């Protein structure tokens, strides 16, 4: 049955007069003997209609002429007084109508079937005058709604500091919890009700820290819920009374076998959303050992979110830049990518690069974050080749002389990880930049002759949909290959791919090419970038300068 929709055919004449507030018609109907106890389809009596419309005169007429029971309840259990208390406008009229019912004996503690009492309904709409009236007429300040929710909880939730002060003066229990173990202080911190927090902490006196450290069923504390939405004023009050900032929250993804002493630290939550003012207040009180055991690395979540200010605060606070965080399982089809992109851990720098957060990446690099890893942890550098990653991040790695030719443990072939990462992406326009900065193709390990288990990188690359013409790719790699011979002669696999692809090498003698490569091998990537190494070399003929810098090379990618 729909208790929210009213049908005219089910409403009595007395009820209709009360609905529109027509006192004269109501008086005549009552004097003529019309009944005042006829219910409509919702179970509303005429007194409900008068109460809902805030028609105090109609209420008084019903009381005088019909001797009605003002505590009659509708189908949903709502008495007339509750309907008045739920009104969010015309507060003077609300108080007048409520006074009429209370004078006639309305029960100030009678709620609906969902246990909503009039007092909490009045607090919910922030009608402090009505709250005072109800309390003066016998409303129980300790009454609860469903789930153990008290009047103080509701006042804290809506930020009604006047009602909070009134309830505190009536000695309500500050330590009362609902079924989720939430205190009213917790609720006030969650909603950022600074003055309410101040009032309750002051009222708690010597037990203020104890109150602040009471946790919800998931381990959440007042400090945590205040920080997760950036309520720094609440944090300031909590820290001042000695609230524990190291209480962790059980994450929503936690299962029965997850680490019980881990949890999510408030520092990680504040860092993720870049609430740096909260961090400034919290960090001096953080136990770094507890933080190290928590589920999330604050630097990693801050890096992923681009929270540069938070990263600076965390670094100042002594957080290590090389912390490893457990990574979800990642299954890859391309076999040569598994050793480099299927690892159990990741770092904060990897998160910054993966999300394209340039400023956080630079901050972490400057703080000494490892640029590459040979095993276990993802190499941050290898994520610079993804689509939509700012080129400035790649340049930052090169300027810091990242090891371009690192080969990780477990690699299927002795080819640098950086080259494999580029081959595994659709974004290879940076390949020539890497080659110019010293990346070695190691073509002698592309065929099946020298790799364990007869693995052929060339065969797998040829079968990738996005590689395009494999012979064009190999011709570019040959250009930068520093071996004594251009094509490995162990088998015909490479020569068959490169057949007829050497026109761009005409006129360049092998000795010239090898000399150029040998010279460039002794120059660091940061100096090879943008040909910076040539700036200190004078008196070179222009053609030789162009040759040494590959300016005469025309790529085929």
Automatic annotation (TrEMBL):
Superkingdom, taxonomy of origin = Eukaryota
ANK repeats span 147-179, 218-250
Report domain SOCS box positions: 497-554
Entry-linked SUPFAM superfamilies: Ankyrin repeat (SSF48403), SOCS box-like (SSF158235)
Chain coiled-coil ranges: none
> Can you supply a Gene Ontology BP term from the record?
intracellular signal transduction
Q: Which Pfam families match?
A: Ank_2 (PF12796)
For this UniProt record, give its keywords in alphabetical order, as a comma-separated list. Answer: ANK repeat, Repeat
Species of provenance: Plectus sambesii
**Protein name per its UniProtKB record:** SOCS box domain-containing protein
């Amino acid at each position: 049955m729909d208790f929210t929709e009213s049908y005219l055919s089910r409403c009595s004449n007395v009820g209709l007069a009360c609905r529109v507030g027509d006192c004269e018609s109501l008086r005549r109907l009552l004097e003529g003997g019309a009944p005042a106890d006829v219910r409509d389809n919702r179970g509303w009596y005429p007194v409900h209609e008068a109460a809902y419309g805030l028609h105090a005169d109609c209420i008084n007429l019903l009381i005088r002429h019909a001797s009605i029971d003002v505590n009659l309840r509708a189908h949903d259990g709502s008495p007339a007084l509750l309907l008045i208390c739920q009104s969010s406008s015309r507060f003077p009229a609300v108080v007048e109508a409520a006074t009429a019912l209370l004078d006639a004996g309305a029960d100030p503690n009678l709620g609906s079937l969902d246990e909503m009492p009039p007092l909490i309904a009045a607090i919910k709409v922030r009608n402090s005058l009505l709250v005072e009236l109800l309390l003066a007429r016998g409303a129980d300040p300790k009454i609860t709604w469903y789930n153990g929710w008290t009047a103080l909880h509701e006042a804290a939730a809506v930020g009604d500091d006047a009602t909070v002060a009134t309830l505190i003066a009536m000695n309500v229990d500050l330590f009362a919890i609902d079924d989720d173990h939430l205190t009213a202080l917790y609720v006030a911190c969650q909603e950022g009700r600074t003055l309410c927090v101040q009032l309750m902490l002051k009222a708690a006196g010597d037990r203020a820290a104890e109150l602040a450290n009471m946790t919800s069923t998931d381990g959440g504390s007042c400090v945590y819920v205040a920080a997760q939405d950036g309520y720094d004023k609440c944090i300031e009050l909590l820290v001042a009374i000695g609230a524990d900032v190291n209480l962790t929250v059980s994450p929503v993804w936690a299962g029965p076998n997850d680490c019980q002493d881990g949890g999510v630290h408030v520092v990680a939550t504040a860092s993720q959303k870049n609430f740096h003012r909260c961090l400034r207040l919290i960090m001096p009180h953080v136990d770094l050992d507890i933080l190290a055991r928590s589920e999330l690395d604050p630097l990693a979540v801050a890096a992923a979110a681009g929270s540069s200010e938070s990263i600076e605060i965390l670094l100042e606070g002594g957080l290590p830049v090389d912390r490893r965080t457990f990574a979800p399982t990642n299954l890859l089809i391309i076999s040569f990518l598994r050793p480099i992109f299927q690892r159990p851990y990741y770092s904060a720098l990897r998160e910054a690069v993966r999300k394209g957060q340039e400023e956080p990446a630079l901050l972490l690099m400057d703080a000494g974050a490892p640029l590459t890893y040979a095993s276990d942890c993802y190499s941050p550098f290898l994520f610079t080749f993804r689509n939509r990653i700012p080129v400035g991040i790649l340049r930052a790695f090169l300027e810091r002389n990242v090891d371009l030719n690192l080969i990780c443990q477990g690699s299927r072939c002795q080819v640098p990880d950086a080259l494999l990462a580029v081959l595994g992406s659709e974004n290879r326009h940076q390949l020539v930049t890497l080659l110019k900065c010293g990346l070695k193709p190691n073509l002698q390990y592309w065929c099946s002759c020298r790799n364990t288990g007869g693995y052929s990188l060339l065969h797998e690359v040829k079968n990738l949909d996005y590689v395009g013409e494999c012979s064009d790719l190999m011709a570019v790699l040959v250009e930068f290959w520093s071996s004594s011979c251009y094509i490995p002669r162990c088998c015909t696999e490479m020569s068959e791919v490169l057949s007829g692809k050497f026109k761009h090498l005409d006129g360049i003698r092998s000795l010239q090419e090898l000399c150029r490569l040998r010279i460039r091998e002794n120059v660091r990537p940061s100096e090879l970038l943008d040909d910076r190494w040539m700036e200190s070399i004078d008196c070179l003929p222009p053609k030789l300068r162009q040759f040494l810098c590959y300016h005469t090379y025309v790529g085929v990618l």
